[in-house]
Amino acid sequence: AAAMRSPARLLLGGMVVVPLLAVGAALYTQYRMDMMPCAWCVLQRLFFVGVALAGLLGLLVPGLLLRRLAAGLALLAALAGITAALWQHFVANDSASCGMSLADRLMGSTGMDSRFPEVFAAYASCADAKVNLFGVPYEFWSLSLFIALALAALQVVARPR
After folding, report:
1. Around Cβ 135, how many Cβ atoms within 10 Å?
2. What single-letter DSSP state applies at residue 62?
3. At CA 108, angle to CA 103 and CA 111, rounded to 5?
4. How does 52-66 read in b/e, with b if 16+ C-beta sit within 10 Å?
5. Which of 103, 115, 147, 159 has most Cβ atoms within 10 angstroms of its Cβ?
6. What's phi and psi for 129, nearest 5 deg?
7. What is the rounded distance in angstroms from the CA atom of residue 84 to the CA atom of residue 133?
8. CA neighbor of 153 nearest in space, from 74, 36, 96
9. Which run of H or E residues covers position 132?
10. pTM (2 decimals)?
11. In angstroms, rounded to a whole number, what is the distance separating the alpha carbons of residues 107 and 113?
12. CB–CB of 107/84 below 8 Å?
């Protein structure tokens, strides 16, 4: 039972639950509060799902090396999320249109926007999607979660037990 509650396993569990809660919160604000997402918003959702899948992989694979590799994948997804959140805030939000941006092309190349439009389709331009939640820009909420997830993943990479 102690092995089930190891620090690495708890962190990996958090890397599954927290990003899925973040996507759930984004969907709640989209469908219940009419906060329509832009391409960079939905790209961040995809990176949250990537962190969650890597965290789940880390929980399921045997051996410390594979757990470390799964945490490394989670770290890469979290770093991509950090980059996307910062880009959204400092570059995309100031452009009149973010149509056919890198985020649009990435989402289109994954096919997730057409397979799961309820979650991954962008419905607003970056300028229109500037939203504050409790006085904080939405993408900064995302950024803070990605930073926490990256730190958790780093901890598992360093100490996979």
Report:
1. 5
2. -
3. 130
4. bbbbbbbbeeeeeee
5. 103
6. -90, 10
7. 18
8. 74
9. strand 132-133
10. 0.92
11. 6
12. no
